[in-house]
Specification:
six-stranded mixed beta sheet; 12 strands
């Protein structure tokens, strides 16, 4: 049986072949009645558009490449679940704009590759993942600086297009929350001198807000462990060794908070009555902790939408206007954050 063509659909719908093409490329210049007539004709003829030919004509691939940076020794189960959630939101946002996603997990030098746009494998590149692989980020430095169709999550470099959570606001929300509950002697846990600066922004927002409230925080920043969970355990051990008095903790990420929570529980310290704990990231594991962990959760659905929109242009942009990518902004786009209050800070 002969396969139906766009010309067959055009004849049946009473329109030109170019109109059929515009319908299937998502043109906003086609009226709704005409679009419905073309789609009905295509359905009756069992017409399937040739996406490859359409993309060749337009010069677009219809693909967004997403690189997820992991640590070299991480298995799939050990990748931070935050990265999986952000990846899912990116894929959904790309799909909503009619794009497919090409996903690559990269951990070591033999895997590093980011020239998807240059090699015409994709129309845009989004880089997300752990901050604990400096070799990977060093590789992507030139890619992110040299390609206006590339963007990353976080703050790995200056003057590259990026999206991050509103880290300073998150720190301020944590400070307000602990202060309003009567905690007056907080500790901040997290390596804030690392090259990717989101931890430092959370710290800045936290101490700035505490200063406004008349308080201050001790900072445990020099942690030798590389695993975030173990950093939390190490921080509690060192606070104990120093004889440091504290009644609350704001951790730079949830895994540090979960490690600290476990270490405190092992020492018989009541949470939240003796020490309240707030984490950051809103990973699913926090609600299953004992007690469930209060956390600052970024809106990752919005983060995915922002990442995709920044490199592909606004979905509302008319198709007769060229979709150009703006130059990288001095201030990255911010995803909103919200406090998720749970038992680790709710005093009885």
């Amino acid at each position: 049986m002969r396969k139906s063509t766009a010309w067959d659909v055009a004849e049946k719908a009473g329109v030109s072949q170019s109109t059929v093409s515009r319908v299937f490329t998502g043109s906003t210049r086609i009226s709704d009645p005409t679009r419905e007539r073309v789609l009905l004709a295509a359905k009756e003829l069992d017409y399937i558009p040739d996406k490859r030919a359409s993309r060749l004509r337009s010069g677009q691939t219809g693909v967004v490449a997403v690189v997820v940076i992991t640590r070299a020794d991480d298995s799939a189960r050990e990748v931070n679940p935050f990265a999986y959630v952000l990846l899912g939101s990116v894929c959904r946002a790309a799909s909503a704009m009619g794009y497919e996603t090409l996903v690559s997990f990269q951990a070591s030098e033999d895997q590093f590759y980011g020239r998807y746009v240059e090699q015409r494998d994709a129309d845009a590149l989004i880089v997300i993942g752990t901050t604990q692989n400096p070799e990977a980020w060093a590789h992507f430095d030139s890619v992110l600086h040299g390609d206006d169709s590339a963007i990353c999550w976080g703050l790995p470099f200056d003057d590259v297009r990026s999206v991050r959570s509103d880290n300073q606001l998150g720190g301020k929300i944590a400070a307000d929350h602990l202060w309003n509950l009567g905690y007056r002697n907080p500790v901040f846990l997290g390596p804030i001198e690392q090259s990717q600066r989101q931890f430092h922004e959370r710290y800045e927002g936290f101490v700035e807000r505490l200063k406004d409230l008349g308080g201050k925080a001790h900072v445990m920043r020099d942690l030798s462990e590389t695993n975030r969970f173990e950093q939390g355990r190490e921080a509690i051990a060192r606070l104990e060794q120093e004889g440091r008095s504290y009644d609350s903790i704001f951790a730079a990420c949830d895994f540090i908070a979960l490690g600290a929570l476990e270490a405190l529980s092992e020492r018989g310290i009541a949470i939240p009555d003796e020490v309240g704990i707030v984490g950051y990231d809103g990973i699913a594991a926090t609600k299953h902790a004992n007690p469930p962990l209060t956390t600052i959760r970024p809106d990752l659905e919005e983060a995915g939408r922002l990442l995709v929109a920044q490199v592909l242009g606004s979905p509302e942009q008319p198709d007769d206007e060229p979709q150009s990518s703006p130059m990288p902004e001095a201030n990255p786009r911010l995803a909103p954050v919200a406090l998720i209050e749970r038992s680790s800070t709710s005093k009885r």
